Amino acid sequence: MSSLTEKDGPVVQLLMTTGTCPRCILRFCCVGSQALYRRPYKDLMKDLEEFLKNNEEKEDTVYFGVVDPPCKKIRRGHTEEGPDDLSHYGALQKSPSANDENTAMENSGMKICNVCLGILQEFSEADFVKQVCQKVNSADYQFTSFVFSVSLPPQLSVRECAAWLLVKQEMGKLGLSMEKDDIVQLKEAYKWIIHPHLSEELGVPADGKSLFEVSVVFAHPETEEECHFLATACPDCFKPAKNKQSVFTRMAVIKALEKIKEEDFLKLFPCPPSSPKNLCVALEIQCNNGAIFVAGRYNKYSRNLPQTPWIIDGERKLESSVEELISEHLMAEFKADSFNFSSSGREDVDVRTLGNGRPFAIELVNPHRIHFTAEEMKRLQQTINNSSDKIQVRDLQLVTRSAIGRMKEGEEEKTKTYSALIWTDKEIQKEDIAFLDSIKELKLDQKTPLRVLHRRPLAVRYRFVHSMKTEYVDEHHFRLRLKTQAGTYIKEFVHGDFGRTMPNIGFLMNRTTDILELDVESVDVDWPPTLDD
Amino acid sequence: TGRDGAGRGGHWCLCPVADVKGRPCEDFCVLQHSNRRVGRGVICVITLAEAHPLLQNGKTITSVNYQISANCSRLQNKVSGKSKRGAQFLTELAPLCRISSSDGEEYTIYSCIRGRLIEVNENIISNPRLLQEKPSTEGYIAVVLPKFEESKSVTQGLLTQKEYEEVLLKRLNSSS
């Protein structure tokens, strides 16, 4: 139904007299024409009055002696009192209410709607749109579209239900039926009205899939306790809440409203709902941008740098970390709130990462800047590389969230190559290490290394050393290059870890060995895509 | 003796225990890992000390038995998860195993520290010579994880390297 028809007359009349605003009236008459909702408030009022007048002239004495719609009353300065009106007019006559918006509305003849509590009234007007846009602009975000999300106080659902029952009753008298689902949802109507305004002010379209979210939380303290009767009627809908938050969440209230019987509801809640003294309050207007992902590969040249910050008991044990050195500049450029760093495996504090480097991905949370060209990313990469000699990054690029999966995918299957500097207790000659070069696909039996056993479960894992290449240094030292399955503990393969990694280099050589230095030569993962320099 | 980390990867702190249960020269070592970064405690490894009778010339080990009582075998120790649930709990004088030598002697190896038993070295059952040839690496006895709160205090009752050297010196002087 796109517009009002004759049979809507009684409902319109009823809702107007009980204190419901024009747009809510349209909703309960299942009017689906968005344009109607967008008409200025005053015009809508006139339209409805016209409509009623026309209807009156058609009908008999049914509407005779009907109470005038509240707006007319105010204009004439009448102080006629109904049970709900008393406090309302009393307020008007005493002094302007503390709430400026209330005053404005009352002066222009708008009574605060007993169903939407002002959402489709004051909060659909230009002033509020300006307020929202001011907040958005001052928050200084880059965005190409927006999604507007609204959080309504739960008592609106209760009042909606009461109004619905009222309308259903009235329709029943006329022998008409109506489904609750036919009523236009308040949020939907609100978005019909406000999206075009916001879109115009912000200069970008509204898009349900947008990553940039403008959210408003509304509250109405005056009627907060209106939901409480539901707790006695449907106690099992309300679970005790953690953190002293209210048990009366929107979801819980809606569930209870679905459960409660109509007769019980009508016994416990006034129908029609009472007219409120105050408007809703917009508690929070917040902006949030969806996360952005930056990927790349890093080299680590320091033997004294942890991957993540090393802090024990609030004290930092080692200065900085790989993730901080990379993320610091990204955070600043993208103006993000926080970051999450992940990589394809990681190396110890004292291990260097050479070659092409290790793939990593950083999630930047709530970035204010999102537009970066390939050129700008290159410059950003240069900035990071200029700022530290401990790490270097390459192939820095924006990626999608789903692309991150590629990085973690190969973690068990991919190979890695290492270079280790090994010490032996007994003297060695070149011939003593040559045999290692011809060992292929050596299967290792590795118990969880003692150095990590305090925080990992005790287990045995099988890993393969695919190939080795030795390089004699002197009687007590040689270099070993090895290509292994991902997840192999290299240090333990060299020194044996109390014989808990078998076989190990010491065992193979029948000597006592230790590892002096370890470097990662390559991480054989072909992601992220290599960029040309 | 070369590098401290040889055979086991550096960062171990040696805490000797001398004359356990009053038995002369039955010394042990508690190796405590120095990694206190995160996690639930500091791993310790129990080994024989050089002065222990079993490591002297001429001793032949005939058996290594982890069944320390009718109801308790250290071989049945099963741990699961990061917190090592199900581990047998040890006090300082809890026996870990009993070792017999060909000259008819029997020696009990004690835990020396409080904590959860993580694993015992099964290799020395089939190859007791490992215990004698590489007592502080491949011939270790057991791995124990003290309670997190006791990580620092667990070795306080033990000797420092210096104090142990004084004990050894005293023995030398009294026997000569």
TrEMBL record, chain A:
<comment type="similarity">
    <text>Belongs to the pseudouridine synthase Pus10 family.</text>
</comment>
<feature type="domain" description="Pus10 N-terminal eukaryotes">
    <location>
        <begin position="113"/>
        <end position="287"/>
    </location>
</feature>
<dbReference type="GO" id="GO:0031119">
    <property type="term" value="P:tRNA pseudouridine synthesis"/>
</dbReference>
<keyword id="KW-0175">Coiled coil</keyword>
<keyword id="KW-0819">tRNA processing</keyword>
<dbReference type="InterPro" id="IPR020103">
    <property type="entry name" value="PsdUridine_synth_cat_dom_sf"/>
</dbReference>
<dbReference type="GO" id="GO:0005739">
    <property type="term" value="C:mitochondrion"/>
</dbReference>
<dbReference type="GO" id="GO:0160148">
    <property type="term" value="F:tRNA pseudouridine(55) synthase activity"/>
</dbReference>
<dbReference type="GO" id="GO:0003723">
    <property type="term" value="F:RNA binding"/>
</dbReference>
<dbReference type="InterPro" id="IPR048742">
    <property type="entry name" value="Pus10_N_euk"/>
</dbReference>
<dbReference type="Pfam" id="PF21237">
    <property type="entry name" value="Pus10_N_euk"/>
</dbReference>
<keyword id="KW-0413">Isomerase</keyword>
<dbReference type="InterPro" id="IPR048741">
    <property type="entry name" value="Pus10-like_C"/>
</dbReference>
<dbReference type="GO" id="GO:0046872">
    <property type="term" value="F:metal ion binding"/>
</dbReference>
<protein>
    <recommendedName>
        <fullName>tRNA pseudouridine synthase Pus10</fullName>
        <ecNumber>5.4.99.25</ecNumber>
    </recommendedName>
</protein>
<feature type="region of interest" description="Disordered">
    <location>
        <begin position="75"/>
        <end position="103"/>
    </location>
</feature>
<keyword id="KW-0479">Metal-binding</keyword>
<keyword id="KW-0862">Zinc</keyword>
<dbReference type="GO" id="GO:0005634">
    <property type="term" value="C:nucleus"/>
</dbReference>
<dbReference type="Pfam" id="PF21238">
    <property type="entry name" value="Pus10_C"/>
</dbReference>
<feature type="compositionally biased region" description="Polar residues">
    <location>
        <begin position="94"/>
        <end position="103"/>
    </location>
</feature>
<feature type="domain" description="Pus10-like C-terminal">
    <location>
        <begin position="293"/>
        <end position="524"/>
    </location>
</feature>
From TrEMBL, chain B:
<dbReference type="GO" id="GO:0048813">
    <property type="term" value="P:dendrite morphogenesis"/>
</dbReference>
<keyword id="KW-0539">Nucleus</keyword>
<dbReference type="InterPro" id="IPR033753">
    <property type="entry name" value="GCV_H/Fam206"/>
</dbReference>
<dbReference type="GO" id="GO:0051015">
    <property type="term" value="F:actin filament binding"/>
</dbReference>
<dbReference type="GO" id="GO:0030833">
    <property type="term" value="P:regulation of actin filament polymerization"/>
</dbReference>
<dbReference type="GO" id="GO:0051489">
    <property type="term" value="P:regulation of filopodium assembly"/>
</dbReference>
<keyword id="KW-0966">Cell projection</keyword>
<dbReference type="GO" id="GO:0030425">
    <property type="term" value="C:dendrite"/>
</dbReference>
<dbReference type="GO" id="GO:0030027">
    <property type="term" value="C:lamellipodium"/>
</dbReference>
<dbReference type="GO" id="GO:0030426">
    <property type="term" value="C:growth cone"/>
</dbReference>
<dbReference type="Pfam" id="PF01597">
    <property type="entry name" value="GCV_H"/>
</dbReference>
<dbReference type="GO" id="GO:0016607">
    <property type="term" value="C:nuclear speck"/>
</dbReference>
<protein>
    <recommendedName>
        <fullName>Protein Abitram</fullName>
    </recommendedName>
</protein>
<dbReference type="InterPro" id="IPR011053">
    <property type="entry name" value="Single_hybrid_motif"/>
</dbReference>
<dbReference type="InterPro" id="IPR039169">
    <property type="entry name" value="Abitram"/>
</dbReference>
<dbReference type="GO" id="GO:0003785">
    <property type="term" value="F:actin monomer binding"/>
</dbReference>
<dbReference type="GO" id="GO:0032433">
    <property type="term" value="C:filopodium tip"/>
</dbReference>
<comment type="similarity">
    <text>Belongs to the ABITRAM family.</text>
</comment>
